[in-house]
């Protein structure tokens, strides 16, 4: 980490957080939701107990730290907070103290300094928005890999090359104006430019309009981190895969980073972006990473990539129907009237939605409602197949077991699309999403 980067975060702890707000809200970064980590990184089989050790590498003012410590507090698991900025650490400590969290170890070092100390290995490492600010990101990733357990996993976020084009062009524009100015002077100049931004400027389009700029002008650390950072790089999808390979790791899954339940993975699926059947078939025949790279360029709106890394190549396993001994469960809970509404609207086109813009359309009926009702986190896939085969589907003089498996797979694909369903052992970690609720609405 360069000296300029160290000084930036001492002067502007990031992100801007007020410990006094901890009593009113709990920020829950989707990438660090352990139900999701368990599903995508550990095949739903991980034990979260007193032996579980998490590392937040470059913890900033504490978003991932607080969320992981909250989740692990009830089972005795621990979190190590690694952050070289003492100013950021003060904010993170105050937030943890406001919540009464005591399962945290604080370390004021860089990634390189910490890994050279040979700490005990970790089950899960969060490193979000950090590696792209290092002089050598690949070395940083290899350092983190050296303290990861053999079966461990990482949650990583780096800047996206294509969706961040507006920032890249802005940095090119102001680069000739930065010489001879200290950070406060650069900030003042940037605020002046943002206050008089032409309506066709790319930053406005990237952020969704004037509200984005207004928010920036109220948040100096955000301006500095977004537009004035002295060291940064960005990756496209192929770059993410190559980055992982540089540390002998594999991309287990792309995931969400911002709020709204963290359904960012849906943006990497071609069938969510392409409707033409012939073109969809052609794209589907390509390797997964080529499909995802197409989605990145076609959408043009991915300013970052959040993803899980594992030592074992899990391929598309997490997207397929889970293993027979695992139990699918509603990660996003159905509303109180969900099943009754499905039955009442039987045979009619309906939308199933989670209130955050994610929706699927289908024509449901009593059989679908009966099947979904037994996705209770206790019935395994094998048991669900038997229930579907013997109790729900009409008996036919054909292989009903195959029909049941295919039907169950189709239902799983539909409800796993936005992480509405995940899978774990029947007695495993099945904490639900506290932000979203599934509802049925007539089209």
From TrEMBL:
It comes from the Bacteria. GO terms for molecular function: methyltransferase activity. Pfam families: Methyltransf_12. The keyword DNA damage does not apply. InterPro entries: Methyltransf_12, SAM-dependent_MTases_sf. Residues 57-152 form the Methyltransferase type domain. The keyword Transferase applies. Keywords: Methyltransferase, Transferase. One of its GO terms (biological process) is methylation. This is Class I SAM-dependent methyltransferase. It comes from Thalassospira indica.
